[in-house]
Amino acid sequence: MKILITGGAGFIGSHLAEEMLARKEDVIVIDNLSTGSIDNIKHLKANRRFSCHIDTIMNRPLMARLIKDCDIIYHLAAAVGVKYIIDNPLESIKTNVGGTEIIMELANSLGNKKILLASTSEIYGKDRPGKHIFNENDDRVLGTTTISRWSYSCTKALDEFLALAYWREKRLPVVIVRFFNTCGSRQTGRYGMVVPRFVKQAISNKPITIYGDGKQTRCFTDVKDAIEAVISLSKNKKAVGEVFNIGNPDNKLTINALAKKVRAMTGSSSAIRHIPYEQAYEKDFEDMRHREPDISKLKRLTGFSPKINIDEMLENIIDYLRVEA
Ligand code: UDP
Predict the structure, then answer these.
(1) 152 is catalytic
(2) From CA 7, how far away is CA 35, in angstroms rounded?
(3) Interval 30-87: pLDDT, tens
(4) In a domain, 116, yes or no
(5) Cβ atoms 212, 274 nearer than 8 A
(6) What does the alpha-carbon distance between residue 37 and residue 181 come to, in Å, rounded to a whole number?
(7) Is residue 283 part of a domain?
């Protein structure tokens, strides 16, 4: 199989590329390095089944060549990270919507190639009273357009609508996956993600910065589990035209507990500091208090259950970031 991974130099994309090469597939990566890094894929370059294009998915002629030549597309290229979206709203919207449109259209016109579309738990939007667990059919509750955080959720929802429209009208085989707080080596804290930020802060004995009261919870998924789920869905005919949550409900933690755990596991002397949301993000920023994935649909179809617990996940990340530091 020839596999095209958009965003393949990113955190999740590079793990997927590595796994596909280990499975003896041919892998072509396209990445504009906006949030990805050449360091993430440098160890793959010697592999003769690997090739890489540093370019944007908005480059239509290039995308046409790559898509024509591949059997399946994992479309992971997107502006990601709450902080990144807030800081780069225009680029985020243009890439997330325009880029996906180009890929869907070409995949359809150049041989109806299968597409795995990466989406996000941000899709579900705001908290609502008493609701912590989200399944694929749940309503989306979003804030007003002046709060730029919500643009990410909207762009990814448009991507999902587009993919499903291509499936319904053109029978383009699409599978949509919504990642919930995926973590692992190569994830950078630069765009706001909490785990690499806390680990870096702890390793350097700087204050661990918790936004808000820290009582909000998240379920953290190891990237290796996420990749396995994605691959098993891509092989399952019944997944086509469907949306799946990918996450690990067992790795649920308050952000306060995460900070303490990271500090203990690194043997750090970092102080733990609470910072108001407004200072961390933007005025009127709204955070989700709780967000847990219901993964019963994924389990039912593929038999997949995540295996990597929070301690093992954090150990890997700490080891990785210690070497990097
Ligand atoms: N967070 C934090 N300190 C940081 C970065 C994030 O306390 O340095 C909080 C953030 O406000 C949120 C949680 O950690 O409540 C998860 O944030 P992240 O950006 O990793 O993911 P998401 O908000 O998309 O769940």
Answers:
(1) yes
(2) 9
(3) 999 999 999 999 999 999 999 999 999 999 999 999 999 999 999 999 988 778 888 8
(4) yes
(5) yes
(6) 20
(7) no
Is the residue at 70 inside a domain?
yes
Q: Which residues line ligand 1 (CB under 6 A)?
A: 82, 181, 192-194, 197, 209-212, 216, 218, 255, 287
Is 52 a domain residue? yes
For residue 201, give the ligand 1 atom closest to its CA.
Answer: 8
Does the structure show a pLDDT above 80 at 152?
yes
To test the ligand 1 pocket, which listed residue (148, 181, 194) has its Cβ within 8 A of the most ligand atoms? 194
Parent domain of 92: 2-184+221-248+290-308
Q: For residue 48, what is the domain's CATH number?
A: 3.40.50.720
Strands 208-211 and 252-254, by their bridges, are unpaired
Please pick, among 74, 84, 124, 152, the residue that the annotation labels catalytic: 152
Q: Is the dihedral of CA 51, 54, 57, 63 positive or negative?
A: negative
Q: Which pTM value belongs to this model? A: 0.96
